[in-house]
Design goal:
By secondary structure, the chain is α+β, with helices and mostly antiparallel strands. The protein has 17 helices and 12 strands. The radius of gyration is 22 Å and the shape is elongated. The chain binds cobalamin and iron/sulfur cluster (2 copies). One iron/sulfur cluster binds next to α9.
Length: 378
């Protein structure tokens, strides 16, 4: 089962589109404008032919060969579809790449990270699940394009497309770079002059649109993300070992968290933002879509309070949130690790003891580890 990244691989076909008589430059200008009205901060166009991106495919293969994807089997399984867009969706000629900002107005992240009794949740996950929100925006954009083409052609124009946002094997960061809406930062994320707090999404279409110039990199000599990463997961510039990344450990990994990495996780109970919090470009980030605003005080919650939720409370309070995808068992696993990393208090010990007979072996083992730490064996 896939968790944060919910990729599907069912392939389909797009019919070729007659495009004579379309003022494509004017159309692309309008697409950018409509994109802004729909909450996207930037829209660019790339050709679906990835031969230009052969470097990206070579590095993807190297990454997979080195096992850097850990348990994310879908990364290896869908390699062909990811590397070759027309294999995922036959007939695809152009890719409309879009980014949607999500930085929420929240409690100061660094203060939450420094307070071991509080829970740090990735800023992207404090509000509504982005997968649907981004795709809905792209669907609306595609409908606007269809209306425009129908008007221009004076007859029904069936714009053929499919939209994605972390929902299919698509090289999203590579396309965003190729479409000129960002460059790839050394932390491997898509970065722009407005920072990296944005989601990516795409429209694959059989309409041949004029491509934009690729984005230039502006990391320069900076390497703050590499130095700041708590687990040294960015093993070299542009190279991430997911096995070490806290985001992978707390969201994608199903089994026990490796013992040697637990102390490094601190109070990060869902995802991690350290490589972005330190990035100088994020000083220029603006507040994102209101759908991503923090709900239920999740930006400054206490670990013991979240640990006390039963499964029903977990399901109810996190309805519509991406966090719900990890399930109650791994939620408790993650919080147990954070409690084991906190300064011991009576409240923390009692909270852990209350879970020490939990029916899940995974939870019991992480609780036992945390209890051994708070009882003085740290
Ligand atoms: C798998 C995955 C993960 C994995 C692995 C991350 C990774 N860097 O690969 C894990 C679970 C760790 C993860 C974590 C996060 N993810 Co994620 N993830 C993905 C996913 C599904 C695929 C990424 C991928 O293709 N990886 C494969 C590797 C090979 O790609 P790559 O690292 O970009 O490698 C390229 C270069 O770095 C370079 N390269 C690689 N190796 C080498 C070696 C050398 C020597 C050189 C020179 C170059 C080089 O070439 C490669 C090909 O272009 C994408 C969605 C998608 N479909 O694209 C989201 C996506 C990248 N994730 C996203 C987010 C938000 C996150 C987190 C911030 C969540 C969080 N707060 O916890 C973290 C950030 C961690 C980080 N620093 O990357 C967003 C990023 C938005 C943005 N601004 O870019 C995406 C785009 C989803 C979305 N639609 O919004 N993620
Ligand atoms: S998300 Fe956290 S653990 Fe992963 S690379 Fe960034 S700083 Fe490192
Ligand atoms: S912290 Fe520095 S090196 Fe890392 S992505 Fe930001 S600008 Fe690039």
């Amino acid at each position: 089962m896939l968790v944060m990244h919910i990729e599907h691989s069912n392939t389909r076909t797009l019919a070729p589109l007659p495009d004579s008589g379309i003022d494509k430059a004017a159309l692309v200008k309008k697409i950018r404008q409509w994109g802004k009205e729909l909450g996207f901060s930037s829209i660019g166009i790339a050709h679906a032919d990835t031969s230009y991106a052969s470097d990206a495919v070579i590095q993807l293969d190297r990454w997979l060969k080195l096992g850097r994807h850990g348990e994310m089997d879908y990364m290896a399984k869908h390699r062909e579809l990811r590397a070759t867009p027309p294999m995922l969706l036959a007939g695809t000629v152009s890719v409309v790449s879009a980014r949607m900002p999500y930085w929420p107005q929240v409690a100061e992240s660094k203060q939450v990270l420094a307070n071991g009794e509080m829970a740090y949740i990735s800023r992207y996950a404090l509000g509504r699940d982005y997968h649907r929100r981004v795709r809905q925006g792209l669907q609306r954009l595609a409908k606007r394009i269809e209306m425009e083409l129908t008007e221009q052609q004076g007859q029904d124009f069936p714009f053929c497309y499919r939209v994605f946002s972390d929902s299919a094997p698509v090289m999203e960061v590579a396309f965003a770079t190729q479409a000129g809406i960002s460059w790839q930062g050394k932390h491997t994320l898509a970065l722009s002059r407005e920072g990296s707090w944005h989601f990516l999404g795409e429209i694959y279409t059989s309409l041949d649109l004029p491509a934009d110039a690729p984005g230039d990199g502006h990391c320069g000599t900076c390497s703050l993300c590499i130095k700041t990463c708590p687990t040294s997961a960015i093993v070299a510039p542009y190279e991430l070992d997911a096995n070490l990344c806290i985001s992978y450990l707390t969201i994608e990994l199903h089994g026990p968290i490796p013992l040697h990495l637990r102390p490094l996780i601190g109070n990060r109970i869902y995802g991690c933002d350290d490589c972005q919090l330190c990035c100088p470009w994020n000083r220029f980030a603006r507040i994102g879509d209101p759908d991503f605003a923090a709900r239920n005080g999740m930006d400054a919650a206490k670990l013991v309070d979240l640990f006390a939720w039963n499964e029903q409370e977990f399901e109810q309070r996190l309805a519509g949130s991406p966090i719900r995808r990890i399930g109650h068992e791994r939620w408790l696993r993650n919080i147990a690790v954070a409690l084991g990393n906190a300064k011991p208090t009576m409240d923390i010990k009692s909270a852990l003891l209350a879970r020490s007979n939990h029916p899940s072996a995974l939870v019991r083992e992480h609780v036992a580890w945390a209890l051994s730490r708070v009882s003085g064996a740290k």
